[in-house]
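Why do we care about 3D structure at all? Because function follows from shape, and shape follows, mostly, from sequence. That is the central idea of this module. The next example makes it concrete: a single protein chain, its amino acid sequence, and then its structure expressed as tokens.
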Amino acid sequence: MRDLSEIAAAWARPAGLRGSATAEYNWRWLMLGKGVLGPSLPGDAFSGKLPPLNELITLLVGQARRRGLLPSAHQVKVLRRPNTPSMVMPVRLPGSSLLSLPTAVTPVTVQYLQHELAHLAEHALRPSDAPLVERWTFDPLRSEGWALLLEHLAGSTAFLARLGIDEETAAVLARFHAEEERFSRGLMAADLALDADLAGCRTSAEALDAASAVAAGTGLRWAPALLLLRQTRVLHWRSYLAGYAWRDTVRAELASRFGNSHGNGGDGHGDGNGNGNRYGHGGDGWADRDEAWALLRSALARTGPAGSAAGFLDALRLPGPTPPHARSRPHEEAR
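And the structure:
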């Protein structure tokens, strides 16, 4: 398990954070979306901005429609929740979806919108004539891995440019997204390490000692009670880590099948500065290929055993040309 304090400090400095770059301070900044792409402070060299929320929603939904992930007849409605954290909640209804989101746009809003649009697409692409139980049954590993796959593309400078974000802002945002994932996965690893250590604890004092040891070993500098508090979500973190692993397997399959004309075969994090290949993530050149999206749509539409996480991978490995029913749809505008 890597020392997370170095990761925190590395992405804190170029983002312009002031004061001591401790992991706790950076994590609070990350979750609240403060300190980058917000109001400029005197002396700041960077003054980039994100699009207004209405524009951002329209652009992201429009991209999903152009990829055929949301049928033209499928409506997406928005529920605003002022003064809330940057989280997006999907509510899936027949032929319609509801996105519940805050009024403010922060760096993580772009990721979260992409993530939840993936969940909406997974539901919208289910065959309308399938039995109801199959239309509403989802393999949790496939669902989360697919959402993480689509979210990952939000860290691409090319993707951000298509949203109309200027080059400088796109570079900072891409770096932010890459480091956010590294830091989140590192925190989850710390949580799982503590979970394993707690198995041998019999008293609260022993649990606090175990948490202190994990905090010291990772450089988190957190009070042990804070790490213990995160243990209530350990099953959630396990599902995410499994989703990340499945997502990376899917990325490798897509790169193998459709080539990697814009990738460099890296580790998925670019160079940490939003530079490098076109997407800032090694192995995501497939995202420019219509036939790749057609295959993804076909895999997402599967139900029953074929719609499992394993069935999804099997669909990506099918030989021969893309099935006719899964070919790219005409480009459609956002509605």
